[in-house]
Specification:
The structure is a homodimer. With about 250 residues, chain A is of the alpha+beta class. Chain A has two domains: about 120 residues, Sandwich (Jelly Rolls); about 100 residues, Arc Repressor Mutant, subunit A (Orthogonal Bundle), CATH 1.10.10.10. In chain A, about 45% of the residues lie in helices and about 20% in strands. Chain A is built from nine helices and ten strands. A four-stranded antiparallel β-sheet of chain A has the order 2-6-4-5. A three-stranded antiparallel β-sheet of chain A has the order 1-7-3. Chain A has a three-stranded antiparallel β-sheet with strand order 8-10-9. In chain A, a hairpin with a 5-residue loop joins strand 4 and strand 5. In chain A, helix 4 crosses helix 5, helix 6 crosses helix 8 and helix 7 packs across helix 8. The first copy, chain A, is globular. The interface between A and B is large, with 52 and 52 residues. Chain A binds a DNA duplex (30 and 30 nucleotides) through helix 8. Chains A, B: Keywords: DNA-binding, Transcription, Transcription regulation. Chains A, B: It holds the Pfam family cNMP_binding. Chains A, B: This is Crp/Fnr family transcriptional regulator.
Chain lengths: ~250, ~250
DNA sequence: CGTCAGATTGATATTCATCAAGATCGGTGG
DNA sequence: CCACCGATCTTGATGAATATCAATCTGACG
């Protein structure tokens, strides 16, 4: 395990890198972030970073690995409503929501940092612009969720899956984790089914159909997009909703 | 049409009522809101309040009627990713997103107020707590979208429709528009299909199945829930995600 | 080698979209 | 007042898409 000094540096850098994809972060703001108090924790596959119905007093940032927001229905089925990648401030809204309406679970091995809410409130008082950037990060999550609603509601399975892969590739690439449209995504087809709102068998067959297009390969846990433009065209993927434009907010 | 003084009073009251469902609004904060500059506009069914790919410099608040966020796919199908009710600050995220990734359309006749972004930025500088409340309103929108993802992805049509009705009833009731679980919802089944991600025929049949449960009647444009507790139980509806709890944020 | 999780496959039943045709309703103009 | 019209709702029939069930296969690992 990394020592704490490493974890802290990683967390602060990840967060700043995330924010800098969308706007400038001033030295003053960097300094505020660098002085946040944090605790760190590692999670195994399936473990919960944030528990449904709890009242967190800290918010959680992913340092490595993939997490998902999980909604369990009373009939026992599960829907994952969001996938978060390293650098995402996954649980920032707990600051405002107070009471969790869902869990955040580790889809893979995960390292995470927790920041006390009072420190975030302090930022919102002391640094309005930085506060808007944090606000922005929750708003981008909302934009992604809207894209997902459209995918589940109206796209064909093949396009839905391809759209997801495009999205992950672009998001990971923004934080340096998907060079040449290739990235590691160690999830099972069963997990993927809960992300896509399909059955396991359907996922398996859709994956095969996607491979047959020749645009993507997915071997072991490595996803590689061979022709991003063609895949984006096929799946009607337009990255505008990810808001990866650096401009004043 | 109302004169402007009326519209302004309605807008400010609607917004304060919305925020007060979740936290206290101080006299200072009220005053800031009351002095926002606004322009007002009326829309007919199907007209766009906010246009995809535009760069709004003002954000839009619904005063009366229902609006929806509309995503059009290249195959011509449509998905509505959110329904907004009077009092919702529909387009608050445009403040941060800059470039719209979707449209906001009038599902019925709609009156709306537009507030310049610079005034909202000023609030974020001058009133951190009020700013957090506005942030909260976008975060609640996100929570609703997550619930929708779960509904589209995993619930049966009957439960999905019932869940939507429960949600609308609770949200409308919070702003005084659904006394005794009865409210006006003048949308066509075709619009509903785009909300639910189903075909028109499916919506029609699901509506009939819902009527047969005896828990809901939907005549002309009036929806009445006869047994809210039973409907909520049937559809696995838990209002926690709407965050209608008044507490410090 | 045996075990286990995960991936794959085939068969079957169900659900759902689509197509096409009426029925109903509200409003309009003669 | 009535005939007509368009929008919306309703219904039945059909085929395609998808979930489900039940094996079987594969690869990693002790």
């Amino acid at each position: 395990m990394n020592d704490l000094r490493d974890d802290r540096a990683i967390a602060v850098e990840a967060l700043i890198r995330y924010l800098e994809c969308r706007d400038q972060v001033s030295a003053y703001e960097r300094n505020l972030l660098a002085n946040l108090s944090m605790r760190f924790k590692a999670f195994g596959k399936g473990e919960e970073l944030v528990v449904e119905h709890s009242r967190p007093n800290e918010s959680c940032l992913v340092l490595s690995g993939f997490t998902g927001r999980e909604v369990m229905l009373k009939d026992g089925t599960r829907q994952i409503t969001a996938v978060h990648i390293p650098g995402d401030f996954v649980d920032l809204h707990a600051l405002l929501l107070k009471l969790m309406d869902h869990s955040v679970v580790a889809l893979t091995e995960v390292h995470a940092a927790y920041v006390p809410h009072q420190e975030l409130v302090r930022i919102s008082e002391a640094a309005p612009h930085l506060s808007r950037l944090l606000w922005l990060s929750t708003v981008v999550d909302g934009a992604i969720q809207r894209a997902w609603i459209a995918c589940i509601g109206r796209r064909k399975p093949l396009h839905h899956l391809g759209h997801l892969i495009c999205e992950l590739s672009v998001r990971l690439n923004a934080v340096g984790l998907a060079p040449r449209h290739s990235f590691d995504f160690p999830v099972t087809q069963a997990q993927l089914a809960d992300v896509l709102g399909m059955s396991l068998v359907q996922v398996n067959r859709t994956l095969q159909a996607l491979r047959r297009t020749g645009l993507v390969s997915w071997k072991a846990s490595t996803v590689t997009i061979h022709d991003f433009a063609a895949l984006a065209e096929l799946c009607d993927f337009d990255p505008i909703y990810l808001n990866l434009i650096n401009e004043p907010r």
